[in-house]
Every structure is written in structure tokens, then in C-alpha cells.
Amino acid sequence: MAYLAAAVIVVGIIGLLNLILAFGVIRRLREHTVRLTALEAGHGHSDQIMLGAGSTVAPFQAVTEDGVTVTRDGLTGRTLVAFFSPDCTPCRERMPQFIRYAAEHPGGRDHVVGVVASDRDAAGEYVAALTPVARVVVESDGGPLCTAFGVQGFPAIGLIDESGVVVASGSLIEDLSAPVAG
């Protein structure tokens, strides 16, 4: 009888610990759901998606899908730079608007860089869509360009001048019309 009582107490304690752990996990999931919803809507962190206006991009070097080397110091004029990931729903939704905007960017394709943060197998659709309007670089998330521009999420879009200073940035095309910070 004593063994049965001890077993019931042990099972009760384990059940109580399991319940406390489940409540903690549910609470964390709710917090993450709120954050993900805000990110997918393009709100909340759009000013922190990459380096902000007035910041200087770190030196970088990457090779485009055409085999051309792109460096920060090699950019001339204002350059439009965008980062996309095939795994992100907002990237897929905003890609057509970006392509239209990039097609009208002064200087044409030579002044637009599109970065696909992915492995080559998953990047094919994005590379095909961006190639007519941009020099396209495929790199892993956290690659040299993502690091140089301080990319924190996708899509990230920025406009930089010839000295590598960010003129405007955000996750929406509309963010590029924001005034330059002093």
C-alpha cells in the first residue's frame, strides 16, 4: 500500500511539472506568433530590417550569377539593393512590385543588386525573376552581402550612394522615399 501511495505521489508531481512546462511553451508560442505576424505584415521592425539611413555599408565582395564581381567600392551612383529569401511569404508577395520599381531605377540593371539568400537549388525562380532588372547574387543567409548590409529579415530593400552610405531602407518600396537621416 505504501508503494502505491508513493507511485501516485510521483506520478502527480511529474504531471504537475509537465503542466507547468506546457504553460511556459504555450506562452512563448503566443509571443512568437505576435512577432511573426508583425514581421509578415511589414510592421514593427521595418526600420531595423537592415542598416538604416546614414549608416555606412561594410566593404564586401561577391560574384553575381553572370560571373561579375561586385564590391562596395565598385558601385557607382545610387544603387538599389534588395534581399529576398525563397522561404519568406512577404518576399514572394513584394517581388513583382520590386521588379517594376527596379526596372525604372536610374542607371538600369547596373545600379540594381538583387541578393537571394538561399542555396542554389531553391533560388532558381528568384534568380530568373531578378536577372532582367538586377545583377543577382546568391548567397546563404548570413553571407557577405547580408552581413555587410546588416540584414535582419526578408525582404530588405535599400538605396545606397556611391560612397556606400545608406540613403533609405526598409522592407517596403515605400520605405525608400523616407527622408535621409542627418
TrEMBL record:
CDD domains, A to Z: TlpA_like_family
Stored Pfam families: Redoxin
Keyword Membrane on entry: yes
UniProt keyword list: Isomerase, Membrane, Transmembrane, Transmembrane helix
Alphabetized GO MF terms: isomerase activity
Coiled coil: none
Domain Thioredoxin: start-end pairs: 51-182
Segments passing through the bilayer: 6-26
Domain of life: Bacteria
Gene3D superfamilies: Glutaredoxin
Name used for this protein in its record: Thiol-disulfide isomerase/thioredoxin
Organism: Micromonospora echinospora (Micromonospora purpurea)
